[in-house]
Write a structure and sequence with these properties.
Length: about 170
């Protein structure tokens, strides 16, 4: 629909120019101008599509596939009232049907105070499980240290098909 309106905007503009300058002198050049504008639009679109293909192959890899497998496993094996914390809670919901919340953001910076706040957030929101991924640097920098320094509060669930690229962690009562 955008291409349609783009084309008709060029057509109306060229018709205005033709009326102003005279139809006989500019008719052919205006048709060439409209065609050239569509060719440029087509070339830009091809470049954008190739960019999307390259980006997708860089982002959607075996690590991301493991994350999606973890979400599916949670949907199949956890109770319906499980509450998950993950880097992408909306995608986890789509693949598992389980509610959740975001684990970290790119602006988070690990500190002891941050760790205390994150543990308090997990407790207050009654988070039952975490999907700990390796696709986000924020998870690596902020969540791994919390898990490693509080091993009595979390237990990793061994899931065979994740190949150690993603982990589902149960939140224990504390």
């Amino acid at each position: 629909i955008l291409i349609y309106h783009f084309y008709w905007g060029i057509t109306i503009t060229t018709q205005y120019v033709q009326k102003k300058w005279g139809k006989s002198s500019t008719g052919r050049s205006m048709r060439i101008l409209r065609s050239l504008a569509l060719i440029i639009l087509f070339a830009i679109n091809l470049h954008g599509n190739s960019h999307n293909v390259y980006t997708k192959s860089a982002v959607y890899n075996e690590w991301y596939e493991s994350f999606l497998s973890a979400a599916q496993w949670c949907g199949s094996n956890l109770p319906d009232d499980a509450f998950l914390m993950s880097i992408k809670p909306r995608i986890v919901y789509l693949y598992s049907g389980l509610k959740g919340m975001p684990m970290v953001s790119e602006r988070d910076i690990y500190s002891i105070g941050y760790a205390e706040l994150k543990l308090k957030e997990i407790k207050e929101n009654q988070v039952t499980h975490l999907i700990v991924d390796a696709i986000s640097n924020s998870t690596k920098k902020n969540i791994y240290p919390i898990l490693n320094s509080n091993k009595e509060k979390f237990e990793a669930i061994p899931i065979a098909n994740l190949n150690d690229k993603c982990t589902v962690v149960e939140v224990l009562d504390w």
